[in-house]
Specification:
alpha/beta, Rossmann fold, Helicase, Ruva Protein, domain 3, 18 strands, about 45% helix, about 15% strand
């Protein structure tokens, strides 16, 4: 078998020699070019598993070459070599389609990781597409576009910001980006930024050394280091306090962390994905989210559609949910009657797929025969929504309906707080601004299990 070929584009002979030696030691076949034109000729003539290019070249720059590769050699991952601290150029390269970047002076350990990841991606250019079948359901145009975007983003190491309403499946999308890319053998570490108390956040994310503070009885690896070689999902990143946003920005720029009590920074090889249901641009305008961090995590933006934007997927989703409930409850799942399906199709689903799951689980419990009818489905008294509407834009018209509507809103807020705190009621009560006793009373009154 021929060795995988790597094209190095740089006009500095010493750097080309260093890169060539490093690549040969990795059992790769290095080729070099000193200009954009020479690189284009070589890419037309031969197959390469990776292109490493400097930004400053005699007849152009690396950004120009990236654009050319995206058009004429789209199967070749391209990584750029940037000047130290020049993150603006690196971000521009990632937006144009670069796989990743490495800064001068070169850290050879970091370079070897980058090259290994790129070679692995070239060996499996289409990703693990089998993942999309049973897990990302729906045949609507919106979901077909989502699958295409996931496949494209899996071929990059650029930060991706996933946004969409609560319950749309943002974490599932992030997991699929990870599992269909070259980092699939590494860990996928989801972190809910809104569920970690502020006083513990730095220790949880960065880790600490023994004795660094009261209660630090041993060394602890942070969640960022736990994602080494894999992907870190910062869910609800909008909830990060400003002082932690500064520290996260440094992690992204320097690709290193410093645990509490540690004197030196530790390099990390982690791809960072983020998600939120909030509008980060608006938070930046209000001063609640740092603009520089926004541009680092939002290199690529992916919007997850709401369920009301893909109503044609409801029958398939409902069938899959009922089959899953049947397996879990060890029963033959009831069928969904036409009147029930019609009621679901007319509903606005402010809680999206997560709400559909809750509705069907309740219906399975309530139905008396082997079919779910419209009378078994308890829907909120909310009007139809357009894609841009707020889930709670208009209250019900009667006093009893209004009370039900308000209870639904309260129930959703409590359930969300419990999920964010991993069902720690004390932490959830603090998030909601109420006492533990009051929360326990509301949970019992609203029938939340």
């Amino acid at each position: 078998m021929p060795k995988p070929a790597v094209l190095v584009v740089d006009d500095e002979p010493d750097l080309c020699e260093l890169l060539s030696i490093t690549l040969r030691r990795m059992d790769l076949d290095p080729h070099t070019a000193s200009t954009v034109a020479a690189a284009q000729r070589m890419l037309r003539a031969d197959r390469y598993e990776l292109c490493l290019t400097d930004m400053q070249l005699p007849d152009g720059d690396g950004l120009e070459l990236i654009g050319w590769i995206q058009k004429y050699a789209p199967g070749v991952p391209v990584a750029v070599i940037t000047a130290h601290g020049n993150m603006e150029t690196a971000v521009r390269a990632l937006k144009l389609g670069a796989f990743d970047f490495v800064s001068k002076p070169l850290d050879l350990a970091e370079l070897r990781k980058l090259v290994a990841t790129a070679i692995k991606m070239s060996e499996d250019p289409n990703g693990d597409t089998e993942l999309f079948g049973p897990r990302l359901l729906g045949t609507s145009g919106a979901m077909q576009h989502m699958r295409e975007m996931i496949a494209r983003m899996a071929r990059s190491q650029a930060p991706v910001h996933i946004y969409g309403e609560s319950g749309t499946g943002k974490e599932l999308v992030a997991r699929l980006i990870h599992e269909s890319g070259p980092r699939r053998d590494g860990p996928f570490v989801p972190v809910n930024c809104g569920a970690i108390p502020n006083e513990l956040m730095e220790s949880e994310l960065f880790g600490h050394k023994r004795g660094s503070f009261t209660g630090a009885v041993g060394d602890k690896k942070g969640l960022i280091q736990s994602a080494e070689g894999g992907t870190l999902l910062l869910d609800e990143i909008a909830d990060l306090p400003l002082h932690m946003q500064v520290k996260l920005l440094r992690v992204i720029q320097e690709r290193s962390v410093r645990p509490i009590g540690e004197q030196h920074e530790i390099g990390v090889d982690v791809r960072i994905l983020s998600a939120t249901h909030q509008n980060l641009s608006e938070l930046v305008a209000k001063g609640a989210f740092r603009e520089d961090l926004f541009y680092r995590v939002n290199v690529i933006e992916l919007r997850v559609p709401s369920l009301r934007e893909r109503r044609e997927d409801i029958p398939e989703l409902a069938d899959a949910i009922l089959r899953r409930l049947g397996r879990r409850m060890k029963i033959t799942p009831p069928a969904l009657g036409k009147d029930a399906l019609k009621a679901l199709d007319a509903y606005s689903f402010p809680g999206n797929v997560r709400e559909l799951e809750n509705i069907l689980e309740r219906a399975v419990t309530l139905c008396t025969d082997r079919q779910i009818n419209a009378s078994d489905i308890q829907l909120r008294a909310t009007p139809m929504h357009s894609a841009a509407d707020s889930p709670h834009s208009a209250p019900a018209t009667t006093s009893s309906a209004l009370e039900d509507h308000l209870e639904d809103i309260e129930r959703e807020a409590i359930v969300k707080a419990l999920e964010q705190s991993r069902y720690n009621k004390t932490a959830a009560a603090k998030t909601l601004g109420m006492s533990f006793r009051a929360l326990r009373y509301r949970i019992k009154k609203l029938g939340i299990e």
